[in-house]
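Changelog-adjacent note: as of this version, every example in the card shows the full chain rather than a window. The one below runs 310 residues end to end.
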Amino acid sequence: MSVVVHSPDAAETAEWRARLAALLPEYTVEPMLEARRPEAVRYAVVWQPGNGQLARFPGLRAIVSLGAGIDHVLADTALPAGVPIIRTVGRDLTQRMREYVALHVLRHHREMPALAAAQAAGRWEQIVPPPATARRVGVMGLGNLGAEAARSLAALGFDTAGWARSPREIEGVRCFAGAEGLSPFLARTEILVCLLPLTPETRDILNAELFARLPRGASLVNAGRGAHLVEDDLLAALASGQLSHATLDVFRQEPLPPGHPFWAHPGVTVTPHIASMIDPETGGRIVAANIRAFERDGTVPDLADAARGY
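Full-length structure tokens:
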């Protein structure tokens, strides 16, 4: 039996292969594109697999996503029907996302972009924000990462709300749900954090119509997916003052191309998709444990729902 591994970065593929080979000695672990016996492949551990590549393995029991999202797997138009998809989540990923969200919400709350601009201009400008208890923050997407991010923001004292497709209950967080809950959620949100999964319903959700429902001068943190954001609508909202600033960790094209307007825009902070990276050292243990559990029981807690897209 074998496990194949794939990342668009060859060095990452080699690192994951080495780590999983040490953790799963009962399997042959090899790069997906170099699989010598496709019929022997039982598990594919992948990030952004090429279109049609997974269909080469007739005995595939499960696909393991190297991340919490599965949209990069579902993008394969030749994806083998009925093969389960296992998400990779864990305490390290959750902790990293909590840190990222807290950092950038605090940056927006304490007006750090404006203070940085004042420093660059040599201008002494004392900007005094309200306390966190008077700042209304909203988290879109209340899955594992979103729920923990919302809890962390509430623990920092922010007036925190969350929005999801279906009802949720999170202590210290006011939860909204469904289409009927979106408008009141947005109307009270001064700092919007997007941690939604990417599905047909959420693609392009961060658009002009949504921005118009936020309080004027609101700010945005997008650590979900690049395809959530209509980029031209964001630029227009920043130009009009409807939004004051945006922190973006994910983009429609990655790496973000040289010359893209986000790079030099004074109202945009760019981070290179690092909010909650999974690494072979810690992530390898999660992947190996999930493969063993699935082989033994036919299921794992992190099994995705492909019909919903997450």
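Structural remarks: The domain at 2-88+278-297 is CATH 3.40.50.720 (Rossmann fold).
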